[in-house]
Amino acid sequence: xxxxxxxxxxxxxxxxxxxxxxxxxKRYFCLLWEQRSMAVIGLLLATITAIAGIALLAVSGWFISxxxxxxxxxxxxxxxxxxxxxxxVRGLSIIRTTGRYGERITTHEATLRxxxxxxxxxxxSLAKHHWQENPLNSHDASSRLLxxxxxxxxxxxxxxxxxxxxxxxxxxxxxxxxxxxxxxIVWILPMLLLTVVLMPYLYxxxxxKPQDSLHQQRSQQWSSASSLxxxxxxxxxxxxxxxxxxxxxxxxxxxxxxxxxTSRARQKIMAINNLMCAVxxxxxxxxxxxxxxxxxxxxxxxxxxxxxxxxxxxxxLGGTSALANFGLGYAALNRINAHAPSxxxxxxxxxxxxxxxxxxxxxxxxxxxxxxxxxxxxxxYPQRASAxxxxxxxxxxxxxxxxxxxxxxxxxxxxxxxxxxxxxxxQGTINIIGANAGQLCLMPQQIDLLRxxxxxNLCLHQPHSDEALLKSLTLVELxxxxxxxxxxxxxxxxxxxxxxSGGELKRLGMARLLLQDSRILxxxxxxxxxxQQRAVRILNRLHQHWAGKLVIINSHDSSLMCxxxxxxxxx
Amino acid sequence: xxxxxxxxxxxxxxxxxDAKTLLRAASNSAxxxxxxxxxxxxxxTLCTIIFAxxxxxxxxxxxxxxxxxxxQLHWWGLLAAVLCIKxxxxxxxxxxxxxxxxxxxNALRSAAMEHCQQHHIxxxxxxxAAELSSLISTEIDSTRDYFAEFMPQQRLAMLAPVLIxxxxxxxxxxxxxxxxxxAPMVPLFMMIVGHKAADASQRNLxxxxxxxxxxxxxxxxxxxLQLARTTDQEQQKLYEQSEAYRHSTMQVLRxxxxxxxxxxxxxxxSVALVAVYLGLLFLGKYHIGSWSGEVTLGDGIFLLxxxxxxxLPLRRLGPLYHARADAMSVAEHLLRLFSKKDSQSQRTPxxxxxxxxRSDAHxxxxxxxxxxxxxxxxxxxxxxxxxxxxxxxxxTGQSLLLKGPSGxxxxxxxxxxxxxxxxxxxxxxxxxQPTTLLNNAQWQGRIGYMAQQPELxxxxxxxxxxxxxxxxDAQLLAALTRVQADILVRALPGQLDYQISDSGGYLSGxxxxxxxxxxVFLHQPDLLxxxxxxxxxxDETADLFLxxxxxxxxxxxxxxxxSHRTRDQTLFQQTITLHSSEGALYEK
Lengths: 571, 588
Description:
- The complex is a heterodimer of chains A (571) and B (588).
- With 571 residues, chain A is an alpha/beta fold.
- Helix content of chain A is 62%, strand content 9%.
- Chain A has helices spanning 2-15, 24-34, 36-71, 74-79, 83-127, 138-146, 153-180, 185-208, 211-230, 232-237, 241-293, 299-319, 322-339, 354-359, 412-419, 454-459, 466-475, 479-484, 502-514, 532-545; strands spanning 350-352, 371-379, 389-397, 401-404, 427-433, 440-443, 452-453, 492-493, 520-524, 550-554, 566-568.
- In chain A, helix 20 (532-545) links the parallel strand 9 (520-524) and strand 10.
- Chain B has helices spanning 19-27, 31-64, 73-119, 129-141, 144-169, 174-182, 185-220, 222-227, 231-282, 297-317, 321-338, 343-347, 410-417, 441-444, 461-466, 473-482, 486-491, 509-523, 539-554, and strands at residues 371-381, 384-395, 399-403, 425-430, 433-434, 447-450, 527-531, 558-562, 574-577, 585-587.
- Residues 1-9 and 343-361 of chain B have low confidence and may be disordered.
- Chain A: Residues 372-569 form the ABC transporter domain.
- Chain A: It is found in: Cell membrane.
């Protein structure tokens, strides 16, 4: 019956398309939507600011032309109402100033909020994945979460905003021209379409094409630098330091040159755009003067239209890169996405409560005590030809301690990872009896010391009383060490702070394990680096402490086994 | 008169007193490009002035005088030419700016790299390897915008307003006065704001570092959090830290934008003032400000078009604020690197140790090293003694174990013997001859070294084994077989060409250590220095490692190894226990 259950789960997984983490870009826009009020205010302010800026120029131009013409006759000068235009000019200049400030603050605030959320969510998705098969490159991962993610800001800040502002300004500009010089729309419309649509597209192409190779060159440069600084002694002794540094500098220059080529290609597009803008000015001026000479255009409007054109062009040139920035932000998020785990690993283990186990007679000696049963499990690391574990069966039941004592490379650690569900066997079944997933705890071979207080390193966000911490430290003989620490449990440990020796780390790992509410305990090389007498003392204490629980230990030092313990051979 | 010694061409980057000077010194390495950029800036401003003048003339002619001079083609030719130059100049400008930035960054990189080569391991532990790698690559790379965009724009921001003022002076004295009076307010306010912004951006940098360290640390220790099933809580913590960084960033931005807004304000208000002044002048409300008393529409147009141009270069500097802040923080970082100078290399003339391969300072070493003797050798770091003077002799095939708690000077002794750092007193004798070990390339060529973390380059296994010397595949495989790593290497994709990567890939710590040991067998050094090579290995792999070492001594090598592990003692003929306070205990 259980085998059928197992078959069901397998088909489930095959039928269901692998659950994909929603692409980051989608998620980015979801988060931006959550900040929509601020994002929209930013967009509005940006538009108002841009329009106020253009209008300020245009109105000023009209004002001086009109006053100059009015000033030609005494009557004209007398009747000219200069208060309203003066007030408008002053008002526009104030709107432009305050609008700009408000726009920048709101748009940045919205973007940074989104990125902050995105960053922690990405960490969450990294943290949900088991990295035993393909180890996580920690430098890469953290630099993606810290730096690369910032490119995402360009999606809203330097793509959506300037793009929208550009389009709106161009529409308003066309509208104004229609009013004053309807005949030249035929000339202007295609030119504007070119600058607003084609040029940003070309710019995008020039930007994105070399971006990947530049990115690759830069990360190559980082890894050769890192390679140099982590191997300094060897490089000096083999007289390779000069050579490797020269290579590093060459790599850097090569990347610089790629960067320059990109910049040049972009500048070429910008130059074409500048030229089109120049032509546009000439057309407006020429047609304006013609219209003026036949009386179709008022004298005071010509200079106004010219300044309007100049102001709009500044906005257009600022928006040319918007599409490319969108592309860059999109590519950056995709790049980060490609490294994020794409599937959520299923837990294929079967958990059977002690009562159910007793019913179906797969039974443990005493129904209450936990056990692990695995049937013909096989595991092979991806891209490896041979299986580390093949067709392994066994049943380990409390209250015994089991010692797995195969030589290294025979899959001891892999077996523990299979039992904890960090790896999945590609064949066979694993049954955990009398314990749920949370009650099966592992002390890994490598104990990670996190930068934080000793208390943090023991609790790892779980609530434990100081008494419990002290008790577990005493069991693993770290109590003397604790008393030496300047701030006791609040002493900072980890990188850049106090470091621990190999043996101390192992004992810290055991203390962490002791704090868990567990029924099945797996320990991977717990005594490496601890001297024999102390290891025996600690193990004796653990025997008492963990009475009635299932304990499985990976070790090649079988001399530490006591009489009641059993050996479990992998081969 | 006393002739001073010619200063070096580049008034050395590594002696700059502050970040600003450092960046300026780096920028000076591209003086030609910088001058070119200044010239282009002037031409651009002149084009703007000519453009305004021609427009003013044409409109004045058509609107004000109602004549037909605007139909004359040469004006249009001039206009087209000026507009073309204005459109195409940025192309040349960008090219020059990019070259300037490449040169400046190369100067920074070479200076930093040279410093690192000179001081190599003495930089640790003040700097970590990751920190230095980022400095040399990412951080210096990020100064591109500073050298390519900020610097040229900054020069332009000083030149262009002067030219525009002069142009305006040709017509009126009041308009330039308005501009000139508002202008000094800008630097004044910017200084006040900038001062506050500097503090805020310092705090922001601290927050960024905190966030970066936290991220790196938690990702490295992810497994511990996964096993404790508390990754969600940690995610929340990271979110809080990320939010703290956001708050401090916004603080900086609020101040930075304030100075930008100030510029906007003056720029907008100057346009408004000029327009209103001209309008009222035209309407005959007053007659002040012009030289002749007669102001035409053309004059007005010219002045109004130039008014926004006066502030334009300054306004363009605003968005480049980031570039400047980034570059300053990189420069501060470099200064911290350059400030790390050891007194030793300054006093002795050996400024470039690695170029001194065959200098007279080191006598030629004997072909065969039979014995190494330490006579009252006192080790230390930065002229501070560590441990006690040592006396001992090691002969071919012998091995010495260094014991003692961390901090007792085990690593210091190994580094001294390898010639990385100077001994503070005492002598070393090779075959009875006193020999200087410090930076002695000949001596270093005879040494093998292994540390807790196997030193492997991110390169193929082949290149890692050969390290620039020539060996056949057969020799490589023989060395790998000796440390029982041949099967392991054969199983890797690409075998000898397998690329070792940052993430470790398929190699476990023990396997990587074995490959490093294969390198030792391949090169057969006379002396092998080992700094706790077994600390990260499980007992079984460690024992295997020690067996291989025994083979090495049997082949005639000398081994000195520092270790905590009690099990390691069996191999060694001599043991020294170093104590930080008491003297060294020496036992045979």
